[in-house]
Amino acid sequence: MMELFPRKQVIGFGFSLLLTAIALAVYFFDLSFTAGMTILLVTAFVQAAVQLVVFMHAGETGDKGSIYTNIYYSLAIALVTVFGTLLCMIWGYV
Amino acid sequence: MKIDHSLPLEYGTDQNQLNILGFWIFLGAEIMLFGTLFASYFTLVDRTGSGPSGAEIFEITPVLIETIVLLTSSFVIGLGVHAMRIGRTKAMITFYAITLLLGLTFLGVEIYEFMHYVHIGAGLQVSAFTAILLTTLGTHGAHVTFGLVWGFFIILQVRKHGITPETANKSFIFSLYWHFLDVVWIFIFSFVYLKGMM
């Protein structure tokens, strides 16, 4: 039975629950916008990295380079889309 | 068919490796798709018109249930892939079935949430904010719905053929999709709900 629950994945799951609990701090405590957003940005991106490495097995095989290049590329496009939009639609008018 | 036994079964053949890389490229396109949805959401989040704002309609309980359920399902399908790699067909099917049940629970809560929004006057046509909110959540929910159908047929194939290079490859690719849905949800949970309730 134990061999069905690999240590690495159980720890990864515990860690992702912990990150969720930390993110909840912005709901239960009265934090400033900057402090809250910092917590959310850190927990969300760490959480995504945990999923990627522990559960999606990125980087276990020979095509590791192609997989990571592809993820970084699409992530860069997504971030440019989000922050570029914020820049010209919101921040530019403040 | 040449099978490389030094690799997990789902990577064993050249075709399998290409399938997995191809699916990663598809996930890259999905990241960009959700990137545009988030960009639109952040632009329209304050355009509430005469409708309610996020802080007025979001409730922590259903959101927390959805988050825990989806995180757990992502963990359980990870166990399913592990069981598959050590050749435990029964355990693998059980884990995949639990994953789908959790996915169904998530969907149930989300449908309840949507009905609740419409009920309290935050339907799709009320304001730019409710439109982009329900579009973003709905796109994720549609992905989960599609995943449930896909996963069901994966289980049927594994039951019929056992763990072969083909079924292992399909099951692994499905697990990638499912983990990806969880990653997207993490961002919705953080930057739609928690930011809205902050």
UniProtKB/TrEMBL annotation, chain A:
<keyword id="KW-0472">Membrane</keyword>
<keyword id="KW-0812">Transmembrane</keyword>
<dbReference type="InterPro" id="IPR014250">
    <property type="entry name" value="QoxD"/>
</dbReference>
<keyword id="KW-1003">Cell membrane</keyword>
<dbReference type="Pfam" id="PF03626">
    <property type="entry name" value="COX4_pro"/>
</dbReference>
<comment type="similarity">
    <text>Belongs to the cytochrome c oxidase bacterial subunit 4 family.</text>
</comment>
<feature type="transmembrane region" description="Helical">
    <location>
        <begin position="71"/>
        <end position="93"/>
    </location>
</feature>
<feature type="transmembrane region" description="Helical">
    <location>
        <begin position="35"/>
        <end position="59"/>
    </location>
</feature>
<keyword id="KW-1133">Transmembrane helix</keyword>
<comment type="function">
    <text>Catalyzes quinol oxidation with the concomitant reduction of oxygen to water.</text>
</comment>
<dbReference type="InterPro" id="IPR005171">
    <property type="entry name" value="Cyt_c_oxidase_su4_prok"/>
</dbReference>
<feature type="transmembrane region" description="Helical">
    <location>
        <begin position="12"/>
        <end position="29"/>
    </location>
</feature>
<protein>
    <recommendedName>
        <fullName>Quinol oxidase subunit 4</fullName>
        <ecNumber>1.10.3.-</ecNumber>
    </recommendedName>
</protein>
<keyword id="KW-0560">Oxidoreductase</keyword>
<dbReference type="InterPro" id="IPR050968">
    <property type="entry name" value="Cytochrome_c_oxidase_bac_sub4"/>
</dbReference>
TrEMBL record, chain B:
<dbReference type="InterPro" id="IPR035973">
    <property type="entry name" value="Cyt_c_oxidase_su3-like_sf"/>
</dbReference>
<comment type="function">
    <text>Catalyzes quinol oxidation with the concomitant reduction of oxygen to water.</text>
</comment>
<dbReference type="InterPro" id="IPR013833">
    <property type="entry name" value="Cyt_c_oxidase_su3_a-hlx"/>
</dbReference>
<dbReference type="Pfam" id="PF00510">
    <property type="entry name" value="COX3"/>
</dbReference>
<feature type="transmembrane region" description="Helical">
    <location>
        <begin position="132"/>
        <end position="156"/>
    </location>
</feature>
<dbReference type="InterPro" id="IPR000298">
    <property type="entry name" value="Cyt_c_oxidase-like_su3"/>
</dbReference>
<comment type="similarity">
    <text>Belongs to the cytochrome c oxidase subunit 3 family.</text>
</comment>
<dbReference type="InterPro" id="IPR014246">
    <property type="entry name" value="QoxC"/>
</dbReference>
<dbReference type="InterPro" id="IPR024791">
    <property type="entry name" value="Cyt_c/ubiquinol_Oxase_su3"/>
</dbReference>
<feature type="transmembrane region" description="Helical">
    <location>
        <begin position="21"/>
        <end position="43"/>
    </location>
</feature>
<keyword id="KW-0472">Membrane</keyword>
<keyword id="KW-0812">Transmembrane</keyword>
<feature type="transmembrane region" description="Helical">
    <location>
        <begin position="176"/>
        <end position="194"/>
    </location>
</feature>
<feature type="domain" description="Heme-copper oxidase subunit III family profile">
    <location>
        <begin position="21"/>
        <end position="197"/>
    </location>
</feature>
<keyword id="KW-0560">Oxidoreductase</keyword>
<protein>
    <recommendedName>
        <fullName>Quinol oxidase subunit 3</fullName>
        <ecNumber>1.10.3.-</ecNumber>
    </recommendedName>
</protein>
<feature type="transmembrane region" description="Helical">
    <location>
        <begin position="63"/>
        <end position="81"/>
    </location>
</feature>
<keyword id="KW-1003">Cell membrane</keyword>
<keyword id="KW-1133">Transmembrane helix</keyword>
<feature type="transmembrane region" description="Helical">
    <location>
        <begin position="93"/>
        <end position="112"/>
    </location>
</feature>
